[in-house]
Every structure is written in C-alpha cells, then in structure tokens.
Write a structure and sequence with these properties.
Organism: Ciona savignyi
Largest sheet: 7 strands, mixed
Helix content: 10-25%
Radius of gyration: 18 Å
Shape: globular
Distance between the termini: 22 Å
Protein name: Protein DPCD
Number of strands: 14
Order of helices and strands: HEEEEEHEEEEEHEEHEE
Family: Belongs to the DPCD family.
Pfam family, one: DPCD
C-alpha cells in the first residue's frame, strides 16, 4: 500500500522541466500549496525541495527550503525590495540540507572549532547540535521522518568535520529509500519541457 507521501505527490497536479542538468518538478496540492523538487539528471539525487504555502489570509508566502540552499543573490534582491529583514552574514554559520541517496545530510559552514567540540544528540524527535564551548547551538528536524511517523534513533546519527564545515548525517530508513526509487520511476515517465520550450506539460 502506498505511503501517504507517495499518495500526496501522485495526486498532485505536476509539471516537469529539464534545465541545466536538473529535472525540476512543480507540484500543486489540492489545498493550493506548491512544492518544487529538483533532481540531478545523472545521479537522480534530490538537490532542492522547497514549499510555498498559503497564508492564513489566503495570500502567498515565500518559498521555504526543506532541502538545498537558498540563493543568496535572491535574498539580497528581496532585501533591497524590503521583503526580507535579515540576510545571513558570510561569516556566520550557514546550515543547509543536502541529502544523498541513503543519508539525510546537513552541512554547517563557518564552524572552525575542533572535532572534539561538537556534541550531537536526539531530543523530542529532533537532532540537537551543540558545542562544548557554547558557541553554537542548532536544532535540525527531518520532516520526512515526521511524514512517515517514524522515530529517530541515535545509533543512525553521525558527523564529521573538515574545512570549517560540520557534516551531520542520519541514515534513511528503508521505506523512505524505497519510495524515493518508486517516485523517480514515475517522474521519469512524465512528459518534460526542455529549457527554452514555450510551456510545461502537466500530469
């Protein structure tokens, strides 16, 4: 029986575009929420997942990244138009999620502390990242696990540190990997528009 996540994406109205080596799929849900996913055409790895939902008053919110890194150029443009109040400094720690086929993964840049400084744990179904010198604290959530109703297990959590970047990894459960593969088979069946074509094909 398909998971609720598979059912949601299957039922959504979809358009597909091939652009700059990426398969971009735009989903419109029955409640008006939009989802945009971008996959590497060669590896099929998910590069971007972002949501745009309706506000309480029916207006449209900005895009919220679940996977991938927000375009800093777009952030500065938004700031110049008064729609953003805070832009991250290039010197502050910057955290973004960049999964692999078998791992949920985050990269946190601009963390120069020794590897022994970092402490990771699981609390309230979230990953807690902190440093023993109390210079950094971050809570990481995995919406995928919440959607599947799965609990986090500390034994599946690991990290590494190099070049001032902390890499946090959590092993994906088999059911999520299986659904990823199944969805990709379906996405590849979609008619796609290539860059420069007039309009996207919908399914």
């Amino acid at each position: 029986m398909p998971s609720k996540w598979v059912e949601l994406l299957t039922a959504a109205r979809k358009t597909a575009l091939l652009q700059e080596g990426r398969r971009k799929i735009h989903f419109t849900m029955s409640d008006g929420a939009e989802l945009l996913e971008e996959y590497d055409v060669r590896s099929n790895e998910l590069l971007v997942r972002k949501w745009r939902r309706k506000s309480a008053l029916g207006g449209q919110k900005g895009w919220e990244y679940e996977v991938g890194e927000a375009d800093l150029t777009a952030k500065f443009a938004a700031l110049s138009h008064g729609s953003e109040h805070v832009v991250e400094s290039h010197e502050n720690p910057i955290c973004f999620r960049c999964d692999t086929k078998k791992l949920f993964q985050w990269r946190i840049r601009n963390l120069p502390f020794p590897t022994s400084t970092y402490e990771l744990s699981i609390r309230d179904q979230s990953i807690v990242v902190r440093t023993s010198n109390k210079k950094y604290f971050k809570i990481l959530q995995i919406p995928d696990m919440e959607r599947y109703g799965l609990s986090l297990n500390e034994s599946e959590l690991s990290f590494a540190h190099a070049n001032n970047t902390l890499i946090v990894q959590y092993k994906k459960p088999v059911e999520i990997i299986t659904d990823q593969d199944m969805l990709m088979v379906e996405f590849k069946k979609m008619k796609v528009t290539k860059e420069g074509d007039a309009e996207c094909n919908q399914s």
